[in-house]
Amino acid sequence: MNPLTQVKRTQVINQKEAALGLSEDASWHAKFRGSAYVFVGGVPFDLTEGDLLAVFAQYGEVVDVNLVRDKATGKSKGFAFVAYEDQRSTVLSVDNLNGAKVLGRIIRVDHVEKYKKKEEEDEEELQKKREERGVCYAFQKGECNRGDACKYSHDEQRNANTGWGSKEDDPKWEHDRHRGPQNKGESCGVCYAFQKGECSRGDTCRFSHDEQVAVQGRGVCYAFQKEKCKH
């Protein structure tokens, strides 16, 4: 919807409410009682945080002004978020400043139901992706040095229940379950070269290196492991 259309629409709603004499509880403003922030659009690019403070302080004590700027250039993007000490000041601000002219530009002022700074949103999204990838293997060993730049979770509580401890532990997150070398190749049988102490493939070997199984004395057909057994 066009910003000017939104400005006019809000003005019409306010006029109708005033004509009907609606109470605060019945007003459309009541939906936003939980937020002390207002959105300000159409901000002249020359305006600073101090200028916005001077304009919006007419209707209450301002506690935060977030004039959104381009990260690369530092220039204003033409919109901002303003917070009041008293949430009721947002109603006065919307009713009186929406559609007002500031330096020749009509500004749009509206309520914000759930306000979060862009930086907070970015961090939440990154954390969500880390959780989806699972706990950092190096972090579990106390060796991760990537810090916040790591793509995997560094959640201490989750790390304690990933299955890297005792075998009886039941990992809460399915993709955190240990799939390490001790389980590798179990379906293929014990490595013949490993039984002779000659396997040089280590963790890359597709057969089991389970010592307990190996000492039982029953190996897997060597020809079968080479896919040449005719039995």
UniProtKB/TrEMBL annotation:
<feature type="domain" description="RRM">
    <location>
        <begin position="36"/>
        <end position="114"/>
    </location>
</feature>
<keyword id="KW-0862">Zinc</keyword>
<keyword id="KW-0863">Zinc-finger</keyword>
<feature type="region of interest" description="Disordered">
    <location>
        <begin position="156"/>
        <end position="184"/>
    </location>
</feature>
<dbReference type="InterPro" id="IPR051847">
    <property type="entry name" value="RNA_proc/Spliceosome_comp"/>
</dbReference>
<feature type="domain" description="C3H1-type">
    <location>
        <begin position="190"/>
        <end position="212"/>
    </location>
</feature>
<dbReference type="InterPro" id="IPR012677">
    <property type="entry name" value="Nucleotide-bd_a/b_plait_sf"/>
</dbReference>
<keyword id="KW-0479">Metal-binding</keyword>
<dbReference type="InterPro" id="IPR035979">
    <property type="entry name" value="RBD_domain_sf"/>
</dbReference>
<dbReference type="GO" id="GO:0008270">
    <property type="term" value="F:zinc ion binding"/>
</dbReference>
<dbReference type="InterPro" id="IPR036855">
    <property type="entry name" value="Znf_CCCH_sf"/>
</dbReference>
<dbReference type="GO" id="GO:0000398">
    <property type="term" value="P:mRNA splicing, via spliceosome"/>
</dbReference>
<feature type="compositionally biased region" description="Basic and acidic residues">
    <location>
        <begin position="166"/>
        <end position="179"/>
    </location>
</feature>
<protein>
    <recommendedName>
        <fullName>Zinc finger CCCH domain-containing protein 42</fullName>
    </recommendedName>
</protein>
<dbReference type="GO" id="GO:0003677">
    <property type="term" value="F:DNA binding"/>
</dbReference>
<keyword id="KW-0238">DNA-binding</keyword>
<dbReference type="GO" id="GO:0071011">
    <property type="term" value="C:precatalytic spliceosome"/>
</dbReference>
<keyword id="KW-0694">RNA-binding</keyword>
<dbReference type="GO" id="GO:0071013">
    <property type="term" value="C:catalytic step 2 spliceosome"/>
</dbReference>
<dbReference type="InterPro" id="IPR000504">
    <property type="entry name" value="RRM_dom"/>
</dbReference>
<dbReference type="GO" id="GO:0005686">
    <property type="term" value="C:U2 snRNP"/>
</dbReference>
<feature type="domain" description="C3H1-type">
    <location>
        <begin position="130"/>
        <end position="157"/>
    </location>
</feature>
<dbReference type="InterPro" id="IPR045844">
    <property type="entry name" value="RRM_Ist3-like"/>
</dbReference>
<feature type="zinc finger region" description="C3H1-type">
    <location>
        <begin position="130"/>
        <end position="157"/>
    </location>
</feature>
<dbReference type="Pfam" id="PF00642">
    <property type="entry name" value="zf-CCCH"/>
</dbReference>
<dbReference type="GO" id="GO:0003723">
    <property type="term" value="F:RNA binding"/>
</dbReference>
<dbReference type="Pfam" id="PF00076">
    <property type="entry name" value="RRM_1"/>
</dbReference>
<dbReference type="InterPro" id="IPR000571">
    <property type="entry name" value="Znf_CCCH"/>
</dbReference>
<feature type="zinc finger region" description="C3H1-type">
    <location>
        <begin position="190"/>
        <end position="212"/>
    </location>
</feature>
